[in-house]
Amino acid sequence: MISVDNLSVAFGSFTLFDNISFVVNPKDKIALVGKNGAGKSTMLKIFAGLQAPTGGNVVIPKDVTIGYLPQHMIHADGKTVLQEAETAFEHVKEMQAEIEHLTTELSERTDYDSAEYAELIERLTVKNEQMQTLGLGNFRAEVEKTLIGLGFERSDFGRDTSEFSGGWRMRIELAKILMRRPDVLLLDEPTNHLDIESIQWLENFLATSGCAVILISHDRAFIDAVTNRTIEISLGKIYDYRVSYSKYVELRKERREQQIRAYKNQQKQIQDTEDFIERFRYKATKSVQVQSRIKQLEKLERIEVDMEDNASLHLKFPPAPRSGDIVVEIDGLEKKYDEVVFSDVSLMIKRGEKVAFVGKNGEGKSTLVKCIMNEITDYTGKLRLGHNVKIGYFAQNQASLLDENRTVFETIDYVAVGDIRTKIRDILGAFMFGGEASDKKVKVLSGGERSRLAMIRLLLEPVNLLILDEPTNHLDMRSKDVLKEAILAFDGTAIIVSHDREFLDGLVTKVYEFGNKRVKENLGGIFDFLKAKKLQSLQQLEMRVPQKSEEKESKAPSENKLSYEERKELNKKVRKAERAVEEAEKCVAELEERQTELETKMNDGGNLEELLAQYNKVKRELEQKMYEWEILTEELEALKNG
Questions:
Q1: I need a surface site. Which of 153, 435, 478, 545 has the fewest CB within 10 A?
Q2: Residue 83 CB burial class (10 angstroms; 0-12, 13-18, ≥19)
């Protein structure tokens, strides 16, 4: 479909791509990976026709359509969300007009046996087939489905696009590109402005679409779910792996180990040969062998080992000042603007806990954070911070508070204390400020670079409650690993607002879900939450429990109005649900008893490591079973209430 032949790109003396070649096949789902600055975005721009290579060719057949979503773009104003999204189907209108034109021309001609007439029929046939393949008879329904999938509400459809933030307008552009159904989708960090539910929707759309996808993303879970081929760009070369990202990481490690072994063997061979030449260089009887060895060395193709980032960097927070056992306590909190943002919120975050705030954009995550930060005070209910709580806060606007006249290095050196000052350049390198970049003035940095710098500065401050609002949007995978490792080792408390499941996995032990003006606590990690949420949604779908907004119009008939057979079937479902609740309660009681037994054994001594492993396993099972019991109880109540 797309053929890349000896592609080269150079900027002055710096070579970005050095005679690389590969082919993109129909239905390929490719992850472009590599360090920041390796050339991933440049590759997409070349495919999109926005940048010309220095040498080589990129061949794209004329009938192949391309859809390109860059990281940043200029948005047009003057249309509603729905009107702007519908511009995706202008090509359908053009196709319809062309079909009508060809049909009219055929009806007016009488040269039925001519080559021109046959060509017109062929063109009309192709256009009709394309129209059928697109299957866009009711494109308004397609528009609404796509916008809702990407997180918009129906009430947003009539609002002007200028009312929305840059992130939401990027969603409109993404919707337009997806609905055009191009043969090749080029997506540069498409998840940066999406919440978890929208990311899952996009995952499913891309994984099941028939188009080829070339994707740049730092969201590992996302690219693993979507891609089946990984192309690594490194030092001007490419390494093509026809596997998912996770498998690529394993194969890349094996490749490097093989390279190192081959390199060491060759170095030994070279050393032995050089020793032979040096030893017998001036002996006439060995001159033939010496000349032979010299030529052998000259012809030898030297093995090179790929340059590797310093992956051994471990960033540590300063010791957190000790806070009280309860860090944040909220009871019956409600916040209104023109409408209620959330109400009856009650939660407790204890010292040392790492928790996630998740949910659709606009459901109140950032508002609750601002309440905790005391930036918003006109709420009702109670919110109390514990003793000696010192907050470190990161959000996108924090970058604007940096001193523009300092260099990158000076910005960090100003707040760093102790031994960490000797590692400032290593830390800056891990966050993409290596080499000369550390001497740049803050005022010349891009928004993304400023955000990363603000993040580093925060990591060095002595706080005991970290609040991070979308901290990974501008970080590459290595920088995210450094940050995640630092938070895990942090002995304080952390609240993380994020849609990056891979980053949250193994980091948080509690998830607060924001939605429908409520905040619901979910024990366990992010994937436990997603798994349970999907299961809960399926059960609700099967039970067809009406939403509150629909209850007035679609209230189920009372039991008295049900027929005998319907009452019989309902009673059967109720009894079945009651049994399920009883079984869950019994299981919960058994697990609680087992947990108590293990606690007693741990207090009495014994193999503490083994007992602790058993205890943690039982604790996880108990949390899951409690969650199941809650779902089953809700279903039983729904059945009884009709």
A1: 435
A2: middle
- Report which of 232, 198, 188, 204 is spatially closest to residue 67, judged by C-alpha positions: 188
Residue 212: per-residue pLDDT: 94
Q: Of the candidates 383, 396, 291, 295, which has an alpha carbon nearest to the alpha carbon of residue 335? A: 383
Contact present, 423 and 459 (Cβ < 8 Å): no
Residue 118: CB atoms within 10 A of its CB come to 12
DSSP calls for 323-348: --SEEEEEEEEEEESSSEEEEEEEEE
Closest CA to 214 of 245, 248, 184, 244: 184
pLDDT: which is higher, 606 or 292: 292
Quick one: tokens of 560? 């008295």
118 Cβ partners below 8 Å, 6+ apart?
A: none
CA distance 147 to 180: 14
Say how many C-beta atoms besides its own lie within 10 A of residue 261's C-beta.
Answer: 11
* Mean pLDDT calculated for residue range 89-94: 76
- In this predicted model, what pLDDT tens digit does every residue of 22-76 receive, in sequence order? 999 988 999 999 876 678 888 999 999 998 999 999 999 988 999 998 876 666 7
Return the exposure string of 406-424: e unless at least 16 CB atoms fall within 10 Å of the residue's CB, then b: bbbbebbeeebeeebeebb
How high is the mean pLDDT of the chain? Answer: 81
State how far the Cα of 71 lies from the Cα of 45, in Å rounded to an integer: 11
Strands (E), 189-325: 212-216, 229-234, 237-241
CB 471 within 8 A of CB 455: yes
Q: Kindly tell me the number of DSSP H helices and DSSP E strands found in the chain.
A: 20, 18
Q: Is 108 exposed, middle or buried (0-12, 13-18, 19+ CB in 10 A)?
A: exposed
φ/ψ of 30, rounded to 5, equals -110, 130
